[in-house]
Design goal:
Strand content of chain A: 15-25%
Structural class of chain A: alpha/beta
Distance between the termini of chain A: 39 Å
Oligomer: homodimer
Number of helices of chain A: 13
Radius of gyration of chain A: 21 Å
Shape of chain A: globular
Number of strands of chain A: 9
Chain lengths: 321, 321
């Protein structure tokens, strides 16, 4: 085993020693701190060394790995899907909220609050198998385009974060998503886009059930919410599904505060990171007053807790792939 | 990458080619079928080849990986813990069921049905942090002994199954537990005993919450059930937490039927396996009439579905480590 490990390490070292692991990060303090942390936990001779099995890194998705403005992309999917469903069968639009959503009238849907949102999600995210739902998401990603950038949604991922994910995995970290987004929605693209396999995608979830449908064993998406993976739900989900306290954690809003707080309070070296959307020119600038991705406590308390606040405008040389 | 992979494969091959991977399995049809299946999905040139990422194997725990008679070991833990708690503070025994459980009177507890069981579990499995709970389980395993065998409970694991788990992992399978047992209870020993890390332990779960307790960020075990990982709940949990349909699945009771049915209905090669407790001499013989681990449908329909029924008495040369 020693010879095998040594041999693998040798090839790895030769293959990557020269390259900058984070080429889309400027040479600012952010990049220095990330690399210093990773070095500290992977140096087998250091007191800060962390065994590969405990190198757990978790990341929020919306606003951390991909965009979230002007509204969560999953909700745009829901409205698009509702419009498609209504074109087939207009009778499904049984309320003003559903009619507004199918017409793309975000304002009316937003005015209906959480209940309105849930109604749209229920109609578009239940009554089909998990497999069929994921196929719907994949098909949507092929054709849907973001209203302002014109890009495919799965092309609106942050290049510096893709590099960070790869860098961590090269250093034997397991990289997880821990997001308020739906688990089945995210699994439709997480492996292709982020290199994160289904078993490392943790998210909010609707209820599901197992049934044999016309002789075919099937997991079905049902109406109703099983779990909201946001705020205090994030440490709960990480404990439930991973069972280890991450040593590296990245988010962008106060919905990630509890996860950052819990992870960075563990023993040994810990790295907390908040993506601050400061770049109105290349992306969108928002924080304290935003209706999505609101960030107040993280900005106020994060630096004092030792968390890195990433300034997108200053720290990233490039935003998109 | 190719050179590295090739080099690793070379060392692996040299290291393991000669050894029997399942020495505690007799040379019966069961062993032949298991090895033939594993060969078929790992032969890169075969049409039955399965990529390592999809080599997901799931196993029930109670009665499949370790014993479950005369009663689920976790319930013995609950009764022992209740007795310890009552020795400190007798006032916690607020009902007849709790008094009976603390006195080790299984008959009275059993007569109180599911409600009685839940009462005992609630008192003994909530009101403390996940970390503290897992420490309690570890401490219990150190000293508690099985009523008939006199063995430590974590020494009542099936040696042939330990070998099967190792064999599958050597062949790049991910091995998961998917059990009706509690996830935090099982994590206290799954890595040491089975080599299965926390993130690959799926089980039933009590409610948990995230709170900052006296300044310490903590995940707490609360009263109430969050999820029962049994029967139709097993495919639901596998979909929720792994997001892939396993290709190898092992169980021992009708609580595993849905999981076996769903997994083996997937495309491509699939292996379903039921451990049949036939060995009254070395373990316990039970199936159709048992109050625990009842097995009827699996025996009736399993062979017709191509599932392997493992006959413990005939197929295993050795039961315990």
């Amino acid at each position: 085993m020693f010879i095998r490990t040594f041999c693998c390490s040798l090839f790895l070292t030769i293959g990557t020693a020269a390259a900058d692991p984070l080429p889309s990060w400027n040479d600012t303090d952010a990049k220095t701190r990330i690399i210093a942390f990773v070095d500290s936990v992977t140096d087998a001779g250091a007191s800060t060394y962390v065994t590969p099995a405990d190198r757990i890194a978790v990341f929020d998705n919306d606003g951390t790995l991909w965009g979230e403005q002007p509204v969560y992309f999953q909700f745009i999917f829901a409205m698009d899907r509702l419009a498609d469903m209504a074109a087939e069968n207009p009778a499904i639009l049984t309320s003003d909220v559903l009619k507004a959503a199918a017409a793309g009238d975000l304002k009316t849907v937003a005015a209906a609050g959480e209940e309105g949102l849930l109604e749209v999600v229920t109609v578009t995210h239940s009554g089909l198998s998990v497999d069929a739902f994921e196929a719907e998401v994949s098909a949507w990603l092929e054709t849907a385009r973001h209203p302002t950038s014109g890009r495919a949604y799965d092309d609106m991922v942050y290049q510096p974060m893709l590099e960070l994910l790869s860098y961590l995995r090269d250093k034997d970290f397991d990289t997880y998503i821990v997001s308020g987004g739906g688990v089945h929605f995210m699994r439709a693209f997480a492996e292709d886009v982020y290199g994160i396999p289904p078993e490392q995608v943790i998210g909010s979830a609707g209820k599901t059930s197992y049934q044999v449908v016309d002789g075919v064993p099937t997991v079905l998406k049902d109406p109703g919410i099983a779990f909201i993976d946001d705020k205090e739900g994030k440490p709960v989900a990480i404990d439930s599904k991973i069972g280890k306290r991450p040593i590296f954690v990245g988010g962008n809003s106060d919905g990630d505060f509890a996860m950052l707080e819990w992870a960075t309070a563990g023993d040994g070296p810990r790295f907390g990171m908040i993506i601050h959307h400061t770049d109105a020119e290349r992306e969108v600038a928002y924080d304290r007053e935003s209706h999505i991705g609101k960030l107040v406590r993280g900005l106020d308390e994060g630096p004092g807790r030792g968390w890195l606040i990433v300034d997108m405008a200053d720290d990233w040389s490039r935003i998109w792939p």
